[in-house]
């Protein structure tokens, strides 16, 4: 039985080997007919030929420098320069317009007539009523001096008469110094009634900008009770940047445009140039007096200011024609068609896109006005700057 199983297994293995051989032979026949190289390296010649550049009728070598780099030129010329300064400014009260109203003795506020900030008051209008024990004592002293003076008027003793008169006049002046009016003093003499409170009247017309007292407040001698300003003429404080300071002077005309009234241009004149600098913002204050007859302008308003300053005629070039590295300033003049050479120049003032040329070129010379970085690189490659420096050093030795 065991021998029979072994023979059957050998038979199966033989059939499997036979079938495998037949399949392998069929595969090799197909492989011989396929061209592997054609499959891997075949090129799409139609697409390749379509991407090739077409021949041109004008070779690149025939183009000029101007056509290649688009270099335009300009002439050194004389031009009337007008410096235009644009800056900002704020409105403020004139220092001479602000008035502090004070009381010259200690006391307490019993009545407050001007009771809110921003109220307009007229000269002579009552502001506050103050009770002061010192004021009561001063009035009683004045009445005694007045009575004593009346008694001594007819005496033959000139010394007593003079003493009484001096005492009366001193007490009278004391009340005047405390802002008690002559009318109030005369009324005191007639009635002999001491008033415990004193009404303080406004000595000026204007708006109450600040109020420092309230009903019942204690008043100290010399401390302000109110701050009043008139607003009739205002100061416009213009901020001038450091680079523009040399151009600004007193008497120059300016155009002013307030954000609140963008359609109106106010005219002004520089009244004063302050001698101090703002270290933080690097600006200097310039003052312009603005008339405010219609009271439309209010302190704190923001405005834009334009100052146009004629600074005369000068030899100039556009800023695009100058290479300014800080240490050197170079222009490229056109020696002949398509050929440019570098020249050192000395620059003066810069005004609205133009450099003033102090030396290095002459009026009428043609210089490059664009593509300066290409010309600069070309000059460095050819050693043009070195030759220029050598010529300059030889000229100095001579």
H/E element sequence: HHHHEEEEEEHHHEEEEEEEEEEEEEEEHH
- The best one-word shape is elongated
First and last CA, distance: 129 Å
* Full CATH superfamily name of the largest domain: RNA polymerase II/Efflux pump adaptor protein, barrel-sandwich hybrid domain
Oligomer classification? single chain
CATH architecture classification name of the largest domain: Beta Barrel
- Provide mean pLDDT, rounded: 80
For the record, the count of structural domains works out to 3
- In CATH terms, what is the fold-level topology of the largest domain? OB fold (Dihydrolipoamide Acetyltransferase, E2P)
Low-confidence residue ranges: 36-68
Radius of gyration: 50 Å
Instruction: Tell me how many strands there are.
Output: 21
> What does the largest sheet look like?
6 strands, antiparallel, barrel
Total helical segments = 9
Helix content: 25-40%
Q: Largest beta sheet: what is the strand line-up?
A: 2-11-14-13-12-15
Q: Report the portion of residues in β strands.
A: 35-45%
Would you kindly provide a written description of the structure presented here, covering whatever features stand out?
One of its GO terms (biological process) is copper ion export. Belongs to the membrane fusion protein (MFP) (TC 8.A.1) family. The chain crosses the membrane at residues 7-28. There is one protein chain. By secondary structure, this protein is α+β, with helices and mostly antiparallel strands. It has three domains: 73-80 and 314-397, conserved putative lor/sdh protein from methanococcus maripaludis s2 fold, CATH 2.40.420; 99-229, RNA polymerase II/Efflux pump adaptor protein, barrel-sandwich hybrid domain (OB fold (Dihydrolipoamide Acetyltransferase, E2P), Beta Barrel); 233-312, Efflux pump adaptor protein, beta barrel domain (Elongation Factor Tu (Ef-tu), domain 3), CATH 2.40.30. It has helices at residues 2-33, 36-41, 45-50, 65-69, 133-152, 158-177, 182-191, 372-382, 384-397; strands at 73-75, 77-92, 99-102, 107-112, 120-121, 126-131, 197-201, 206-211, 218-219, 224-229, 233-241, 253-258, 266-278, 283-291, 302-318, 323-324, 329-336, 339-344, 346-351, 354-359, 366-368. α5 runs antiparallel to α6 (158-177). The chain is elongated. The termini are far apart. The relative contact order is 0.15.
